[in-house]
Design brief:
The complex is a heterodimer. Chain A is an alpha/beta fold. Chain A has a single domain (16-258), classed as Rossmann fold, CATH 3.40.50.300. Chain A contains nine helices and ten strands. Chain A has helices at 58-66, 89-94, 112-122, 128-138, 155-167, 185-202, 213-219, 237-242, 248-258; strands at 16-25, 32-42, 47-51, 73-78, 81-82, 95-98, 173-177, 205-210, 222-227, 230-236. The two termini of chain A are 33 Å apart. Chain B is mainly alpha-helical. Chain B has a single domain (50-307), classed as MetI-like (MetI-like fold), CATH 1.10.3720.10. Chain B is built from twelve helices and no strands. Chain B has helices at 3-19, 26-42, 45-62, 64-67, 99-135, 137-152, 155-166, 170-196, 200-207, 212-248, 260-267, 276-303. In chain B, helix 5 packs antiparallel against helix 6 and helix 11 (260-267) packs antiparallel against helix 12 (276-303). The chains are: A alpha/beta, B mainly alpha. The interface between A and B is medium-sized, with 32 and 24 residues.
Chain lengths: 264, 308
């Protein structure tokens, strides 16, 4: 696991810097602050995890970063350059996202081949056919899956297609929105190992959101605990596994995640 | 396997080709999906009856000169108002013309009106509805208020007003009916789009840098097409009825055209003494409308999974 534990090279610019990010839903007095003054930095090649309970704002952070929600306060910088609120094509080329539910993230009437060909067309890549074969092999499906419709695929296979779609335009930063939570446990492990291997092979930076500690610590070196729209503290994956936390809420969260434990 | 080689392999090869677990071309994959739908449609007798009637009417319309037994314009006043017989299967009308032959040629006019209306109304409604639903904001407000205005008129009255303004005739009737037929389709497409635009697969394609135009045409429209096809098939019946109604009022097809509504109108005077003159074109309108409705219901079952 040495490749995963490498620290970001000091001379390269930070892949992603988030400064005082805040997102408001609603207006006036009834407005809800879903994300409140969130700041963090992602080194190049790093894997960073955001954890927290449902509704703590972790997915909202991700959607604001991806450009799905352009109404946010604070700044987001990609490779030391601030990105505009309305993202441009160049940004989408380099930052891609994998969604939570593979059953709703693939167009029901599009064949795998068309799903993968579309981003290539948008960004004007050459050799589309070779690239499609290549990426299908890389995500462990193989070219025989080209002419399948999503309803002919299992959940794990769908998520592999979704990962292939995100990676086919060779992004540098991959945003992962609980990519395994809709899958059963054995398939979860397969997808996580695939993500781990792809990161090594393609020199990717990951930002992952999850409520599952085992999933996050398997993939990420650094983890930030979120609650009620704020980041409480940042920890290393080792700290999380060992249950070393400063904040009481984090300690409680970590303990609750261990689940059932027989009385010694 | 290429399409050419299936033809050589014959029926059994085609079956194997359609059942192949791993399709080897986009064409094969689409045909496999289509064959599955065809099997599901075949399990629905009412829809198959509707389809059979529609196919029959289309064939009759295509081969009208071969099917018709008499000249549809030839008047023979010595043989007027005859009952159905071997020489005149459906009898003759008030000018001694053969009703069966006129009915056969009338099928051409009816289908021409129905198809042309569908071809105008469906894409118009689809584009307006999806654009309005996807873009939202003031575009949505403006387009939907226009739709509201059109929907506020009863469709036949709207069609009447247009024909009155443009002058009677089939082409004007088609334009008038299409203008009355597109707003419900736009409403439908907009409602579908509102649920589609929030889905993850649209978010995913947005994150890939696709333009709104590409998203609407490439991703939203394909999702709306099945329900629009179903809707337009179901509204075929009312299109045919409206066309017949305009013909009946003398604002659609003009005599001596054998349009079914016009035939019905001219038979009106003899309805008590010679009922078949009005009854037969009326029956043709009924059967055709019913066939489109039954087929539309069956189509909805296979194309629209939520109702299936």
């Amino acid at each position: 696991m040495s490749a995963v534990d490498t620290t970001p090279a000091a001379n390269r610019p930070a892949a992603l810097t988030v400064n005082h990010l805040s997102v408001l839903f609603g207006r006036g007095t009834s407005a809800l602050k879903a994300v409140d003054d969130v700041s963090f930095t992602l080194g190049h090649g790093e894997a960073f995890g955001l954890i927290g309970e449902s509704g703590c704002g972790k997915s909202t952070v991700l959607r604001a970063l991806a450009g799905l929600n352009s109404e946010y306060g604070g700044t987001i910088s990609f490779q030391d350059r601030e990105v505009p609120h309305k993202r441009d094509k160049a940004f989408f080329r380099r930052v891609q996202m994998v969604f939570q539910d593979p059953y709703s993230s693939l167009h029901p009437r599009k064949m795998v081949q068309n799903v993968l060909a579309e981003p290539l067309k948008i960004h004007g890549f050459d050799r589309p056919q070779e690239r499609i074969d290549e990426i299908l092999t890389a995500v462990g499906l193989g070219p025989s899956f080209r002419y399948r419709f999503p309803h002919e695929l299992s959940g794990g296979q769908r998520q592999r297609v979704a990962i292939a779609r995100a990676l086919i335009i060779e992004p540098e930063l991959l945003l992962l929105d609980e990519p395994t939570s809709a899958l059963d446990v054995s398939v979860q492990a397969e997808i996580l190992n695939l993500l781990k291997q792809l990161r090594r092979d393609r020199d990717l930076t990951y930002l992952m959101v999850s409520h599952d500690l085992a999933v996050v610590t398997h993939l990420c070196e650094r983890v930030a605990m979120m609650s009620e729209g704020r980041i409480l503290e940042e920890m290393s994956a080792g700290d999380v596994r060992a249950g070393r936390a400063h904040e009481p809420y984090t300690r409680e969260f970590l303990e609750a995640s261990v689940g059932y434990r027989p009385i010694a | 396997m290429t399409p050419q080689s299936i033809d050589q392999a014959g029926g059994r090869g085609l079956k194997a080709w359609l059942a192949a677990p791993v399709p080897s071309s986009p064409f094969q994959a689409r045909m496999q999906q289509l064959s599955l739908k065809w099997w599901r449609l075949r399990a629905n007798p009412a829809a198959m009856f509707g389809l059979a009637v529609i196919v029959l009417i289309v064939l009759v319309a295509l081969f009208a000169p071969l099917v018709a037994t008499h000249d549809i314009y030839a008047q023979d006043l010595t043989k007027r108002l005859q009952r159905p017989s071997v020489a005149h299967w459906f009898g003759t009308d008030e000018l001694g013309r053969d009703i069966f032959s006129r009915l056969v040629f009338g099928a051409r006019i009816t289908l021409y009106i129905a198809l042309l209306t569908a071809v105008i109304a469906a894409p118009l409604g689809l584009i307006v509805g999806t654009t309005s639903g996807y873009l939202g904001g003031w575009v949505d407000t403006v387009l939907m208020r226009i739709v509201d205005i059109f929907l506020a008129f009863p469709s036949l009255v709207l069609a009447l007003a247009f024909v009155a303004a443009l002058g009677p005739g089939i082409d004007h009737a088609i334009i008038a009916i299409a203008l009355a037929a597109w707003p419900p389709i736009a409403r439908l497409a907009r409602a579908e789009t509102l649920s589609i635009r929030k889905s993850d697969y649209i978010a995913a394609v947005r994150l890939q840098g696709a333009s709104p135009l590409r998203i609407i045409l490439g991703h939203v429209v394909p999702m709306c097409i099945p329900s629009v096809v179903v809707r337009i098939t179901l509204s075929m019946a009312s299109i045919i009825l409206t066309a017949a109604g305009l013909g009946f009022l003398g604002l659609g097809a003009q005599p001596p055209s054998p349009e079914w509504g016009a035939m019905l109108a001219s038979g009106r005077e003899f309805i008590l003494t010679n009922g078949w003159i009005a009854g037969i074109p009326g029956l043709a309108i009924l059967v055709t409308s019913l066939a489109f409705n039954l087929f539309g219901d069956g189509l909805r079952d296979i194309l629209d999974p939520r109702h299936g």
